[in-house]
């Protein structure tokens, strides 16, 4: 009959052998014996009445008929595998990959990560550190939690969570040497800074009406760090005065390990969750609600 189909198992054995070029390799991949694959190939050649393989040294090569069959069968099995994998992901739920700058991850998210996993187990959250602003939907991430100033990327949905407030912080012992009513007195201490946030000190000093030239000299004589995490630890150790987002030093301020003698300055940046418009809106929404609960009174109205 013209419309008769060979068995699927025979086609599967043919596809594996054609792709791997070996009956032995196909048998290993399919977890069957060498003889079982050989029988399936013979049944397929009998079905079509033509040879599909020819010997080539120790291996096999496709005949012209085999090449013709392989083109259709190979494409069909690729589509079958993709369909099955997609269904499995849909049923089980693919991981929700959250990108987050290392300092925000280490100082704010990781201390809350166990609670997040317990309260949102269906999220299947995986977190990656990303110092660049990874774009959801393009950088293999589901969402990005970051401090960023507008304009934001046009091809992502942005949920603005909180304003960024920065503060100059010092250990209690060091802070006791300065006048809270006179921000300029901090120039008598070593200023700690990081290359990852070069705008922070100028933003804070501008809001305090401090002399930019004097700030530049103080920074040149200060101590630089590669990462904000080390900067904050240096401030806790009493090595100088650091500039940092309030969110990332909130625990130290509450515990009294750091003091912000001159208060907080709001910057143009916002703590945001970026997510792709075509992404999983249900899980993004659940994460946004969780973040809002954790942020509490820091949320923007």
TrEMBL record:
Family: Belongs to the LysR transcriptional regulatory family.
Record flagged with keyword Transcription regulation: yes
Residue span(s) of domain HTH lysR-type: 6-63
Key words of the record: DNA-binding, Transcription, Transcription regulation
Entry-linked Pfam families: HTH_1, LysR_substrate
Transmembrane segments: none
Species of origin: Billgrantia pellis
Protein name according to UniProt: LysR family transcriptional regulator
Any one GO MF annotation of this record: DNA-binding transcription factor activity
Residues forming coiled coils: none
Any single GO BP term: DNA-templated transcription
Keyword Plastid annotated: no
